Amino acid sequence: MLRAAADWWFTPMPDARVRVFRVVIYLFVVYDVLFIHNIAANHAHTGELYRPLEIAELLSLPQPTPVLITAVQWTLIASCLLSAAGWFPRVSGTIAFLAYFEWCIMSFSYGKVDHDRIALLVALAVLPTVGRALAADRTLSAAAGWALRCVQVAVIATYFLSAFAKFRFGGFDWANGATLVRAVFRRSTVFSEWMLDVPWVLHAGQWAILLMELSAPVIFLVALRWRYAMVGMFVAFHIATYMVITIVFLPHTICLVLAFLPTEKLVWWARDRFAALRGGRTGTAPPPGGAAAGAAPSASPSAPAAAAPAEGG
Amino acid sequence: MSPPAPSPSADDTGAAPAPPETGAAAATAEPRGLSRTGRALRLVACTVCLALLTFGTFFWDDFHFPFGPFRMYSTRNDPNGTIQVAILQGRTESQDWHDLPFHPDITGVNRAEVEGQIPLFEADPDRLSVIADAMAAQQPHLEPLTGVRLINRYHLLEERRLNGHRDDLIAVWEAP
């Protein structure tokens, strides 16, 4: 049983999915630190509110200054761009992880910790362990499987463990409280204002959220078709949350989609279609000057649909 | 397209892995494994991290990021209690007390950050001067603040419906 559990962590998955993951997630991190989560830059003027996290104290990390914040930011951006381009993925990816970790520590040392970053941090930590991965490569590897599995577990743990945080901080009667009333009141939108006049909707919503969180690990037990349906359910939940209270777990949602869904199929399909359009070379060899230098050649145009051996859910 | 023949699995369901693809891809169809050391190190890493995350869920707090609890919206509001909202107000030479926006680009902080440090502001009201300094640095074209105050506004609930509010002054800072 232990052996089976260990093997589950190393279920081979396509290296190509790792490649897709890298491109998207590293570019997202660049966008995040420049436009979404540039809070650290603003904290250059609120140094007196700095309250270091435990890990900052353990590692004796310095208090953020404008110089340090800028240095970390641009180190992060440079390493992410290199990683997205596939240049020295182990080194650049490791630097990106360390820089983003420091970025988070700096940002969260002013009284507010964002809880949608764990899956992203895990992704940044494990992606460099895969080494070189090409989009056209149809090889499966245990390294890719482990990395993607770690992100999958981090995503599902976010849901599952948050239910227990509700029990811990809100009590077992959390679902019968008025937490969503508070949330909607503080951050209402045109889609949610009416709910304050129909409070049973929010009451029912709390029960639905708790049940969804507690049942999240089921995703690893069901067949692929149902797994994809659950991914869709989680994505719909996050879209609804954004519409109702303008909170979006964007990095978490991106990791959810990229780790669970067979994104490599889209890439393979696109590459095969492109090759076919370029003169009938149906993917038996890479197109001239194609990006997949050294990549394994694909089979027939129908191969992407037939092959995908390891959905790796 | 014929369905793949059963063989040891490369998918999550524990079924047999699909057969190698046809064509040149067959040469690279065999999954690449990991060394025993590589597997061991990876298993130890994920076991330790999961253990810390689980422990943190029950015994730690945000302070222990990244292994703190996922406590977003975990506190329970009494359906007949109150909803607490922090209000930041400022005044200038020419303008009386007015609401200030919680925005990193304006006041240098967001609402959640201020609410997370309310006890500290209550213990040392002079910390509110940070808001005035941040605003002066980030919005120099605006009239400088001569006072900042932090208020807890309690919106009253009756069976989950809003029913009025009351304000509690937390801290006040006035420029010397």
UniProtKB/TrEMBL annotation, chain A:
The chain crosses the membrane at residues 20-40, 117-134, 146-165, 204-224, 236-261. Its main location: membrane. GO terms for cellular component: endomembrane system. Residues 10-265 form the HTTM-like domain. Keywords: Membrane, Transmembrane, Transmembrane helix. Residues 285-313 are annotated as: Disordered. This is HTTM-like domain-containing protein. It comes from Allonocardiopsis opalescens.
TrEMBL record, chain B:
Keywords: Membrane, Transmembrane, Transmembrane helix. Residues 1-32 are annotated as: Disordered. The chain crosses the membrane at residues 40-60. Residues 8-31 have a biased composition (Low complexity). This is Uncharacterized protein.
